[in-house]
Predict the structure.
Amino acid sequence: MFKRLASLLLFGVLMLLSANVYADEEVEITPVFEEDSAFAVEWMALLYDRIWAHGVNPAAGSRLYAYASIVLYESIVNGMPDNVSLIGQIYHLTDLSFPPDDQTMDYVSVANSTLALVLQGILPTTNNDDKAKKTVADIKALYEKNYDQRVEIVGEEIVENSAAYGETLAEELLQWIANDNYAQVIKDKANYEVPTGDDYLWEKTNPDLPIVEPYWGQIRPLVLDYADQCAVWSPQLPFSTDENSVFYQQALEVMTTGQNLTPEQQDIARFWIDTPGESGTPAGHWVMLVSQLIEQQDFTLGQAAEAYVMNGITVMDSFISAWSLKYQTLLLRPVTYINRYINRRWRSFLATPNFPEYPSGHSVVSGAAAEVLTDYFGIVAFVDASPTRLGIGLSARSFTSIEAAASEAAISRLYGGIHYRTGIENGLRQGRCIGEVVTYRIRLRPVAQGE
């Protein structure tokens, strides 16, 4: 933790001197809805890169993005007169301190302080290894850069007071975050045993890798009443090895599709792969997609915070919902079924991850994100270039709408050979339900009424 964030500044003496420039004049603070969104985009990019570097798994990654987006929004909401806090809208977020009445706040500096402390509190920074040190160093560097820039604009005293208020918010938000049952979920997963006894049951596809978050469905949701509120319970696909059965035919579709992939389908599968340790996870892909839409539409900081927080809430609850159903349904992966009953030599185009098949997590999170982001941005065409930064030869892809991107993300799992069509299509249904719940329950501004 930073003992005091301001004490970490490399140019503290110079900044103290520069503060005198503002001592005898009243400083005009730029409204949050006129500030540049680049501040928020840069913090989210840092988070994406550190999640990538630490190899955070998809479910855990969604939690980090959600909390970062909530921290961003809550740290500047008092500087947005037309907006309302998430207090009372998100479960168990019941109170946060107001800024001091007798001090002028620079809300960019508030957010800078709050984000720096919260990210250091929730990212893997306690281990004394190179990755942890790099994370701490990156957070400190971005904090200090922003601090120095704000001092040049509004002066040392205002920035220092704003950073102090940000520290207070960070402490309160970290206390709230710590009570989401994450610690217990991580503790319990070490003792998880894969059920056996029935032919339809999921088996680990890579014995050398850990099982991914078997108890994630017990994480506290942000908006859903409970993890399974939107669950599409039945795969509507009775398990069978009969060649004329729907189950066999869906497995056969996975195999034959994989054996005849076009170059375009291969590109789609790679584009949405979002592998932990090789990317910032599927939730991170949607965060980067939001960043591109923010830049494309020339959003202000206030608008960016709104977009990030709606997306963040959605992806976190989507992974809680999807993972809860996965470990209750416990359906075997296509590669397991195909190798056992159709073709023992077949391998999927994408390596199959170590968690159950139903539903497709990509489909759930993409369906939910598309529902919420379309509600916020409208139907917009855009180019998604975010995967090109991974350095694995991917090209940008163009989409006519956010929904089109979600549909492609979902079908990419069939091309990759890691999901049956039912898991994909029902996953989209489940995601859209989550998106509808989020858009119905979260209000960032009061609902307008007539005169």
About this structure: The domain at 5-182 is CATH 1.10.606.20 (Vanadium-containing Chloroperoxidase; domain 2).
